[in-house]
Structure formats: structure tokens, C-alpha cells
Amino acid sequence: MASVEVSALAKRFGTSTALHPTDLTIGDGEFVVLVGPSGCGKSTLLRMIAGLEDPSDGCVLIGGRDVTHAAPSDRGVAMVFQSYALYPQMTVAENIAFPLKVAKLPRAEIEERVRDTAAMLDLSALLDRKPRALSGGQRQRVSIARAVVRRPRVLLLDEPLSNLDTSLRARMRHEFARLHQQLGSTMIYVTHDQLEAMTLAERIVVMSAGRVEQVGAPIDVYRAPASLAVAAAIGSPGMNLLPATVVAVDADGTTVRLGGGEDVRTAVRVPGDAIGAAVTLGIRPEHLRPDEAGPFAGAVELFERLGPLSFAHLGARGEAGTIVAQLPGDRAVTLGETMRVAVAPQDAHLFAADERAFPRA
Ligand SMILES: Nc1ncnc2c1ncn2[C@@H]1O[C@H](COP(=O)(O)OP(=O)(O)OP(=O)(O)O)[C@@H](O)[C@H]1O
């Protein structure tokens, strides 16, 4: 097992920058998820750690050793891709054994490792099958088995579940969590699926436009996004973001005014000289509750019942756009009715013009 450290690591393709200089340390045995919108540089960062892409600047250390210019096979890493890339003419057992044969391990050891790895991934009954006789989830488990059979110090996974359907993805998420416990290896997992990020990661690394925006425990990042990009990337439905102006600042917080003239009290601390400043008010759907005197109002344009809860989309607020409020599953709502909602001061977020979050009061 090994730690992974990247230092001032950057990647340019011609004149475009896929990754700005980035520092990141991943602990030995840690499960870290890189998450962010398409094109934000997640795969590029992962591929440079794997040695599949040459950095433009900076260095990569694995287990304290500088591997920036080492071949992929000399880094102690294994990678699982979105496409399974199994050898179709080989059986499951032969596919799993392949990297060990290449490494010229003794036959008895290969057999033992294939048996153990297959058991770990629930593939023991499928060892004689060819890939075409497997389901998508089984094929992905074989490709994971083939990666972990070498006992890599670091396992790199690039959107490994994105070809699978929803229920299989949920099952495989559990398997990854279990696999991480069993193997204890350092795992770096790339996804644009924030549900995978939230459920799998010990720490998430939220990326946007070639930069790391925030690193932290999933729940901390969810509760206190450091920037608008993080607020937009984590949470589904996403955080409501409304343009507002700072009208009052005191020791307990800040009052902002919405475009329609309504005032909203927040427990956020902004500098005293920010009166009049344009800010963005952020509120998660679950923090908006029906309140006759609430500052947010709109006609219900769309109502989604998910069973235990539902989402009301309140429209027609002019430049503020639609607001999404989470409601109990059994709440009766009529399309077109006007609903008023409010937020508690401690649940409101404020972002400055430079898109960084202001701290809580
Ligand atoms: N070989 C390449 N040549 C030129 N540009 C590239 C190359 N590979 C990646 N890029 C660009 O670098 C940026 C980051 O790409 P990257 O694949 O790392 O994003 P990502 O966050 O993994 O996205 P996705 O979730 O869509 O895979 C993108 O703008 C992409 O177009």
C-alpha cells in the first residue's frame, strides 16, 4: 500500500490547460473520489498518476518515490476503466490470470491468487465462462479482479460504473466499499456521479475547470461548499442560487435583498464594507420549508413525487429563475398554486462576486 502525492502537477494540451498546477496528498489506504463536471480534468489527473499521460509540469510521488518519469508498469498501480476491455477468447480465469502470467509468477501462485480474487469479487462460479456469456456487471467485476489480482499498491478507477444500469451501479457501489475494506489499498476513483462520490469517498476532491476547488469529507463539502462550482457539483437537485445584494451586516450575520425586494436573513459573516455588494444566495432544496410569510414565492410549475419526499419547482421569479423546494412525500400540492417558502438563517449560504463562499458567522 502507498500514499500518492502530486505536487504542482499540470497538464497542457497545446494552448489549452487541462489541469492547472495542482497539489494533492492521498493517504496510504485512503479511498478518494475525484468528482466534477465533464472536462474538468479528473481523468487527466488520474492518467498522470497512472503514468498514461506525461505531465507538462510538476511531479508524482507514490509511496514517497518520485515516479513522474517511471513507466506505468513500474509504479505499483493498476487501473480500471469504464470499458471492460476483457480478452474475448479467454475465460474469466484466464483473463484474471493474464497480468500474473505476464509477470511470470509460478503457476501454483497464479492459481491461488486467481481463486482468492475471484472469491472476493463473487466470480468463483464463473471462472470457466467467456466474457460474452457474462452480464455487464459481471464483466466489470472481472476487469476489477484483473486489476486487483496483482495486489497493486494503488488502484485507480476511471468511471468504472458508468456503463451499468442504475440498480447494478448501486450494487457495485457496495462492492467497491467492501473491496476497499478487504484490500486496504489506496483507491482513487473518478466519477461525475455525485451520488457515487458521496457514498464511496472517505474524502472527495471536487474539481472544476482544471482546478481542485475543495477537498474534504463528503458531508463537510456538502454542508459547506467553498465555492459556487462546488455548490453546483454536489447535491441533487442542486443548490438554489439566487442573485442578491447585501443590505445589513452585524455580529450574528448578514441580511441580503433579493431581486424582488424581499429580505433574507443569513448566519453568514461578510465584511462590514460589503453593504451594497452583489452576492449569490445559496439554499439547498431541503432547507426551504413552506411558510406563509416566507420571502420566496412562486407558482408550482413542476411537482415530482419520489415516494418518501417530493420536489416542488416554483417558477416565475423573473431573473432569479426557478426555485426547487423539497417537501414531505405526502404533502398535497396542486400544479399552478402559489407557494411561499422560507429558509432558516443557519441554512443559507452566501457567495461573493469571485464565487468563493463567505464563512458562517
Ligand atoms: N489528448 C488530449 N488532447 C487535447 N485535449 C485533451 C486531451 N485529453 C483531454 N483533453 C482536454 O482536457 C480537458 C480535461 O479532460 P479530462 O478527460 O481530464 O476531463 P474529465 O473531467 O475526466 O471529463 P469526463 O468526465 O468527461 O471524462 C478537456 O477539456 C479535454 O477536452
Describe the structure.
23% of the residues lie in helices and 34% in strands. The chain has 361 residues and is of the alpha+beta class. Helix 5 links the parallel strand 7 and strand 8. The model has no long low-confidence stretch (mean pLDDT 92). The chain starts with a strand and ends in a 10-residue tail after the last strand. The site of adenosine-5'-triphosphate has 11 residues, from helix 1.
Label this structure with key terms.
Rossmann fold, 5-stranded antiparallel β-sheet, 20 strands, binds adenosine-5'-triphosphate, 6-stranded mixed β-sheet, 8 helices, OB fold (Dihydrolipoamide Acetyltransferase, E2P), single chain, 361 residues, 2 domains, alpha+beta
CATH architecture of the largest domain, by name, is 3-Layer(aba) Sandwich
Radius of gyration: 24 Å
Question: What is the chains' assembly state?
Answer: single chain
| Tally of contiguous helical segments | 8
Number of strands: 20
Structural class of the secondary elements? alpha+beta
Distance between the termini: 41 Å
Sequence of secondary-structure elements: EEEHEEEHHHEHEHEEHHEEEEEEEEEE
In the CATH scheme, the class of the largest domain would be Alpha Beta
| Mean pLDDT across all amino acids | 92
The general outline is globular
Report helical residue fraction: 10-25%
- Which molecules are bound besides the chains? adenosine-5'-triphosphate
Poorly predicted ranges: none
CATH topology of the largest domain: Rossmann fold
GO cellular component, one term: ATP-binding cassette (ABC) transporter complex, substrate-binding subunit-containing
GO molecular function, one term: ABC-type maltose transporter activity
Keywords: ATP-binding, Cell inner membrane, Cell membrane, Membrane, Nucleotide-binding, Sugar transport, Transport
Family: Belongs to the ABC transporter superfamily.
